[in-house]
UniProtKB/TrEMBL annotation:
Gene3D superfamilies: 3.90.1200.10, Phosphorylase Kinase, domain 1 (3.30.200.20). It comes from Salipiger aestuarii. GO terms for cellular component: cytoplasm. The keyword Kinase applies. The lineage of its organism: Bacteria, Pseudomonadati, Pseudomonadota, Alphaproteobacteria, Rhodobacterales. This is Thiamine kinase-like enzyme. Keywords: Kinase, Transferase.
Length: 290
C-alpha cells in the first residue's frame, strides 16, 4: 500500500478525496487532503526509537497544544497516522527571525508554550534531555558502524563540558525542535507544529535551538533573551544559555548522522550533517572565546 493509499483508506472521509504531498518534512510523510471542501494535514509516521520519537507522546502534546491555541486542532489519530486541520499559512525561514517584530512574536509564542503547556499537560509525557539524547546517538553510531564513528568521541567530550556548564535547570514543557519551518505564519497569527520531540526540558534548549537554527546575531540573541526573561540576561545566564545553544546544534548534527543510516526519506542528510557541523563548530568556538 502506498502512502497515498493509506491516506485514502482512512475511515474519516465523507467521500472521494483529493490528496497532495506537503513538502518540507525530513522525518515523516505529510499530505494535504481536501474532503468536501475542508482541508486537513495527514501525517504518516511510526515510532522512531533511535530518535526517541514516540507517537503517543506526540499525539498527547498535539492535542494539548491545540487546546491552548498554539497548534491546529487534532481531528484524528491512530497508529502511524495523525490528522490535523489545515491552516492557510507560510512556514518561516531563518531570515524571517531576523525581522525584529517577527522575533518578538516568536518569543511570545515560545513563552506561551512554556507557560500554558506546562500548566495544561496531564498524564504520561516524555522528558527530553539533550545530553541523554547525545549519549544515545553516540552509542547508536558506534554500533551501526557510522562513517562518522571516529569523530564521535571528540564530540562527546565537548558534550560533557557543555552539560557541566549548563548546571541546574528550571523545568518546563518544551517543543524541543524549534526549526523556523515548524513555525507557521497565518493571516493574523503564528502557529507551532510538529511535536515529535516535545517533552519536559529547560527553556534554554528551545531558546538556544531557535537562535542556533535561525543564525541570529549576538544582538538579536540578547534581544530574544531579554524579551523572554523580561530583563537583560546576566553573565551567568548567558554562559549557561550559550552552552545549551551549542548542545542544541550538536544534537542536530548527530540527529542527521543517525538519519543518514536509518531514514528512507529523499533528503540530503550527509549535506545536512556537514552544514550543522560547521554551525556547531562556529558556535562552540564563540562560546569558548567568551
Amino acid at each position: 500500500m502506498t502512502p497515498e493509499d493509506r491516506v485514502r483508506a482512512l475511515d474519516l472521509w465523507s467521500g472521494p478525496v483529493d490528496i497532495a504531498p506537503l513538502t518540507g518534512g525530513i522525518t515523516n510523510r505529510n499530505f494535504v487532503v481536501t474532503d468536501a471542501g475542508a482541508r486537513y494535514v495527514v501525517r504518516l509516521g511510526q515510532d522512531i526509537p533511535e530518535h526517541m520519537v514516540m507517537r503517543w507522546n506526540e499525539r498527547a502534546l498535539s492535542r494539548v497544544a491545540a487546546e491552548a491555541g498554539l497548534s491546529p486542532a487534532l481531528r484524528h489519530a491512530e497508529p502511524g497516522v495523525m490528522v490535523t486541520d489545515f491552516v492557510a499559512s507560510t512556514a518561516l525561514g531563518a531570515d524571517d527571525l531576523h525581522d525584529p517584530q517577527t522575533l518578538r512574536d516568536v518569543v511570545a509564542l515560545v513563552g506561551r508554550v512554556h507557560r500554558d503547556m506546562t500548566r495544561r499537560i496531564c498524564g504520561p509525557v516524555l522528558t527530553f534531555w539533550v545530553f541523554h539524547v547525545l549519549r544515545s546517538y553516540a552509542r547508536f553510531l558506534g554500533n551501526a558502524g557510522s562513517v562518522h564513528a571516529a569523530r564521535v568521541p571528540s564530540l562527546m567530550d565537548g558534550a560533557a563540558e557543555l552539560e557541566q556548564a549548563v548546571g541546574q535547570i528550571d523545568l518546563v514543557l518544551g517543543h524541543n525542535d524549534l526549526l523556523p519551518q515548524n513555525i507557521l505564519r497565518g493571516r493574523d497569527r503564528l502557529w507551532l507544529v510538529d511535536w515529535e520531540y516535545g517533552g519536559f526540558n529547560t527553556p534554554l534548549f528551545d531558546l538556544g535551538g531557535l537562535a542556533g537554527n535561525s543564525g541570529l546575531s549576538e544582538g538579536a540573541e540578547h534581544e530574544m533573551l531579554s524579551l523572554y526573561l523580561g530583563r537583560a540576561p546576566d553573565t551567568d545566564y548567558l554562559r549557561r544559555y550559550g552552552a545549551m545553544k551549542c548542545a542544541s546544534l550538536l544534537r542536530e548534527v548527530m540527529w542527521s548522522m543517525v538519519s543518514e543510516i536509518t531514514s528512507d526519506i529523499d533528503f540530503d542528510y550527509a549535506g545536512y550533517t556537514g552544514e550543522n557541523l560547521a554551525r556547531y563548530a562556529a558556535a562552540l568556538a564563540d562560546w569558548n572565546a567568551r
